[in-house]
Amino acid sequence: MSAALAEAHRLAAAGEAAAALALYDGILAGDPAAADAANNAGVLLRRLGAGEAAIRRYRQALAAVPDHPDAGWNLGRALLEADQADEAWLHLRRAAALRPGWERWHGLGRACQARGDLAGAEAAYARALAARPEAAETLNNLANIRQAAGQPEAALALQDRALALDPGNADLHYNRALLLLLLGRWAEGWREHEWRWQAAGFVSPPPLRQPGLGWRATARRHAAAALGTGARRHHPVLPLRRRRPRPGRPAGAGGAAAAGHAAARAARRGCGGRRRRPGAAA
Q1: Which of 172, 186, 214, 274 has the smallest number of Cβ neighbours within 10 A?
Q2: Which of these, 192, 196, 171, lies nearest to 183 by C-alpha position?
Q3: Tens digit of pLDDT for each residue in 85-136?
Q4: How far apart are CA 174 and CA 279, in angstroms?
Q5: 8 Å CB contact between 113 and 121
Q6: Would you state the pLDDT for residue 274?
Q7: Is residue 227 situated within a structural domain?
C-alpha cells in the first residue's frame, strides 16, 4: 500500500471525508486501476449522498479487479437503493459467493424480494438465518415472504420470533398487528395496532374529543384514528348516514357502531395503514 493510500484511509477513518476524497482522486488520476482507492472513494461518496458518483467509482474498481471482495457488494447495495434491482441482484449474488455471511445473504434476499423472486428471497433469508439466527430484521423479511405466499400463520410465527428478540421494535409490532387483523383476531390486532404511533413515519393522532364537534365529525375522527390514518397515508372515511331512531332508542346511538363497522370493512380491504416494511441490511 502506498503512503498516499494509507493516508487517505486514515483521513476517511477520522471522518475527514473531503480531504480523503481529494487524496483518492489524486491517486486515481495517476492510476485508474487502483481498485481499493476507487472502492473507498465510492463508500465516502455514498455516505455523502452522491449515489451516482459512488456507483461510477464502484464500477471503476470492478473494472480493475472483477473479484474485488467489497466493490461488488457496495455496488449492489447502491444499485438496490437506486431501484435497479436486476443489476443489483447480479452483484449481490456474486458478493455473497465471494464472502458468504449474514449481511450478504440478507442483502441478496432484499434484492430478490425487490425483483419479485420470492423463492430466491426465501432461500437467501434462510441462509442468512443459518449464519445469524437472532437477526430480527431477517425474520421480519421472511415473514413478509410467507404472507405474500398466502401463509399468514407461518408469517405470524416468524414475527413472534422477531419480537422475542427485539420486543421494543414498533415496526415489528405494527407488522404483527396487520397479520393478526388478516387472521381475524380483531381484539389482539387492534391492541397491537397502537404501536404504529411509535413507528417511524407516523405522527401522534389529534385529540379525539374537541369542543364543538358533532356526532358525525366525532365518528369520522374515531374511525380515522382506528385505521391509522395520519401524515404518512390518508384513507377516505365515507360519510355516515343518519338512521331514524327506533322506538325506545335515543337518536345517534348507532354512530359509534357504524364507525366500527366502517373501520373493519376498510381493514379487510387492506386499508389498515402503510405497507409492511422490510428490514434493511446493516
Answers
A1: 214
A2: 192
A3: 999 999 999 999 999 999 999 999 999 999 999 999 999 999 999 999 999 9
A4: 13
A5: yes
A6: 44
A7: yes
Kindly report the number of other CB atoms within 10 A of residue 102's CB atom.
Answer: 19
Q: How far apart are CA 174 and CA 158, in angstroms?
A: 14
Domain presence at residue 225 = yes
pLDDT tens digits for 199-245? Answer: 888 776 655 556 666 656 666 665 665 555 443 333 333 344 444 54
Distances (CA, A) of 139 to 109, 144, 152: 11, 9, 14
Q: Are residues 186 and 143 in the same domain?
A: yes
Residue positions counted in the chain: 282
The rounded distance, in Å, linking the Cα atoms of 102 and 104 is 6
pLDDT digits (tens, 9 = 90+) for 247-260: 554 444 444 444 44
pTM: 0.73
Alpha helix segments (H runs only) across the chain:
3-13, 17-30, 35-47, 51-64, 71-81, 85-98, 102-115, 118-131, 136-148, 152-165, 170-182, 186-193, 215-227, 255-268
Does residue 145 sit in the same domain as residue 178?
A: yes
Q: Which domain holds residue 215?
A: 211-239+255-271
CA distances in angstroms from 52 to 56, 59, 66, listed in the order given: 6, 11, 20
End-to-end CA distance of the chain: 28
184 CB neighbour count, 10 Å cutoff = 9
Enter the DSSP assignment of 234.
Answer: -
